[in-house]
Amino acid sequence: MDLKPTYKDDYRVWGIQKRQNFKTQDNLKPCTDGFINTTTFQDDYHFPGPISKENFKPAHAPMGPRPFDGLSSYKQEYIPYSVEPYKCIQREPYKPSVIPFDGLTTQRKDYKGLRGEASKSVRSKPARGTPATKFNCSTEFRDNYTSWPIRPRPLHKYGKYVPPEVAMNMTSTAHADFVEHKISPAVAVCPQTQAWNWTPFESKSTMKDDYKSWDAKAAPLIRGVQQIEKPTGPFENTTTFRADYVSHAPARTLSCKPILTVQCSQPLDNETTYCTSYIPKEIKVCPAGFANPPGYVYEETQPRGHRLYRKLSATQNGNTANAARKVNSVLDYTRN
């Protein structure tokens, strides 16, 4: 078994020379002077000196011999007003009412209970009658259940009560400071149960007694003009589509499909417009891939490391036939 791939069999190594290193030991010359750590601005800056500015401050006026009175328009025109003393309002002491509190309200005085019928049970009647035999609610669990003996719960024994020797004061703050009021007990407003169980319920209220219903007539419906006339004959499962439908003869459509042509027995040639009109173009190789590019002459190297070449003329280029053959071989390899 041949384990060599197609790439290794068809690949041809180009004879490209290795580029020379243009870096020499004389390029880097370290500075022997000490590093002062100054900037260009510090070296080239010159202090122009202080700039004189014009002073607009007024001159100091000498003070007169007269003393400063300190009078102002507010002090001369101010009129003081006398402030009345604050009157202390004494609150009247609270005095409880002597009249007993009955606790009656307007609702309790004017409330009148309404009598009605006794409420009926809404519970539905049983669908089935009472069974003749009693239902035995025994289950497999109850039949096969084995009871376990349970120990009785131990009772906690409390110690014997010993009353205190000194009498305890049972009065509290509420008992000591409580003020008893003379209040009559509230009278029950709810009527007795037997009073409204036997008489019918009068469904009357203030709203029903004072409100009188109006004899209002319903407004007629607003309908538009009918555009479709209603049928006058008998209606037997007919719709608007069935009544107004007019049948037409089916129109035969014209087929635009081309007629099937008989295939030729000759084989189909593989020539296309692209194959016949295609013009192959020459593939140019970049001259930078060669150490000495054909058709160019080396002139100089820039300080940044860029190499400059000059293109030869047609007469000078005849001497470089070997380089042209090498380029043609590369072009043939790339086309294949």
Outline = extended
Q: Could you tell me the strand content as a percent range?
A: under 5%
Rg computed from alpha carbons, rounded to a whole number of angstroms: 64 Å
Low-confidence stretches: none
Which strand order spans the largest sheet, edge to edge or round the barrel? 1-2
SS content category? mainly alpha
Oligomer state of the chains in this structure: single chain
How many strands appear in the DSSP assignment?
Answer: 2
Helical percentage: 10-25%
Give the termini distance in whole angstroms: 27 Å
Whole-number average pLDDT?
77
Largest sheet: 2 strands, antiparallel
- Return the string of H and E elements: HHHHHHHHHEEH
Count every helix, treating DSSP H or I runs of 4 or more residues as helices. 10
